[in-house]
User: What shape does this take?
Amino acid sequence: MKRYILWVVVLMIGLASFLPVMAFAHGGEDHSGESLAGSSGSILRAPIFVPVETQILMGIKTDLVRKETVPKRLKALGRTRIRPELEAVVTSPVEGRLVGTDDYAPPQLGERVRKGQIVAVVDQTISAPETINLTIERTKTESELRQARTDLALAQKEYERVSKLRNVVPDKEIWRAESVLTSAREKLDGLKNQGKVYETSVDQSRYQSKNPKRVTMRAPLDGVIAETHVTLGEYVRPEKELYHIIDLSEALVEAEIFENAISLVSRATSAKVIVEAYPDDSFTGKLVSIGTTIDPQTRTLRVLFSVPNPGLKLVAEMFADVFIETGESFEGLTIPKTALINQDGQSVIYVKISGEQFVARPVVMAERFMDRVRLSPDSEAFMKEGDRVVVQGMYQIRMSASKPGPTTQKNN
Assistant: This one.
């Protein structure tokens, strides 16, 4: 019996030493649905001791927690678009061959062009059916020319005849003869000029390399060659797109607003835009249009903002977070966005609680603006204005957490 009781006591002592380890390992999981701020020791860590000399060597820097009046913003998903009036497609008005000259070369993909700059030169050519038509018209004109010469000769003779009878025939006959002669001359001159055009056109179609009829196309706006669909020497037709030019100096951002937030947007005038490609940059947009129809599938309304893009970072179809100014504001605690780090899937900051002690605290970001972020009310409960948060050297402090502090060394 004594041996049995001793065995039970040993078993209980073993369980007592093992249970705290299990409790600590389990504490990092939130099975109760409580907020991060209410989680146990694995999240709200014990103070981390870092000597002042080590802080200097590590380059640890801190900044203040501020209480600021910040604008109330509505966050929406959006995407960038190109303004329709800031893009253009260049086509050739005539059929022909794209050529280069001594002072011109076709622009390359990605090249910037100016409004009025020559972007294409085409030597016009004439197709075989058109050549046949021109030949027919030329033959017809030649026949009319022969008839016009005959009419002119007759008119000339008639005018000479009545001129000799100036004192016999009425003056009106002389005027009529003179008028007929003038009309015959003008008709002959017109047919001669028309005949030269047809003659030149037919000759050009037979020997295209000497075609003097050259057409130039110029850029309709300042921009970048976004697409090219032609190469030097290529035969082009009017329906073929040669170049696609886009002016990226200003972009559109289309945001989707849920139906229950439309009243907030109706008072808005601007928005802050952040795209995934440049998470540290903020673009300011001006409200230009509010949609008139709600999407029946998503129950959202499309809102357009015009965004200046001087660095040309915004391109079409980029996903964006749109923070729309609602016209309202409220007070809250803010921290530099450089103080936030991702630790085990959570947003964490390191707070300096004394000259040589820091503590890691999980936080929830309520809103981001410029170079600072506003903390959620739950996170504000563990912070106050004037606290100092680490903005440089968080990794070094985290590594110091595994080293024994002065209290631990003293006990050893």
Confidence is low (pLDDT under 50) at residues 1-43, 202-210, 407-412. The two ends are 40 Å apart (CA to CA). The chain has eight helices and 22 strands. Residues 5 and 49 are 45 Å apart (CA to CA).
